[in-house]
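User: As part of a screening pipeline, I want to sanity-check one entry by hand. Below is the sequence and the SMILES for zinc ion. Please return the complex as structure tokens so I can compare it with the automated output.
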Amino acid sequence: MGYIYLQPIGEVGEELLHYICTRLEGIYGYPCRTASSTGVPEDQYNMNRGQYYAAGIVGDIAERMPPDAEKLLGVANVDLYVHGVNFVFGVAIGNAAIISLTHLRPEYYGRNKNETLFRERALKEAVHELGHTFGLGHCPEIRCVMHFSNNIEDTDIKGIDLCGSCSAKIGKN
Ligand SMILES: [Zn+2]
Ligand SMILES: [Zn+2]
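Assistant: Here is the complex for your manual check:
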């Protein structure tokens, strides 16, 4: 059985990565490893938007997917976009995906720092994007982690777990 690899992009706290890895193992049943951090890919930076192109970064990291990787999840400490939207929490293409931490920090919304809330949000987005790599689409159940997050309120409403229907689709019960 291959690994779920976390690929930190830019400076990402070790504790956060460890927390996400451990929880992902429990949820998806694959062992998880963290690769060493890569720099922020400046060639994916869009100067007009002040953001990085999510799909471009996923393409880059997917090309260097470790041979023992089942899935690869970039954890980026930069703001990400795809065409047609203001920002994305994350994106998945094939067996690779990425999440951005930028919009997950309470400070981003003028609130007080809250590590517990921050890491829980990061985990939800990680589980969500990996869910796509396992073939899951968006779920109408608002408390299911596969529900689409349009904004941070949506992320806060949903749990970290797959609902019964989504779990059944990937053979986890
Ligand atoms: Zn999604
Ligand atoms: Zn669901």
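Points to compare against the pipeline: The two ends are 19 Å apart (CA to CA). Residues 128, 132, 138, 148 surround zinc ion (ligand 1) (CB under 6 Å).
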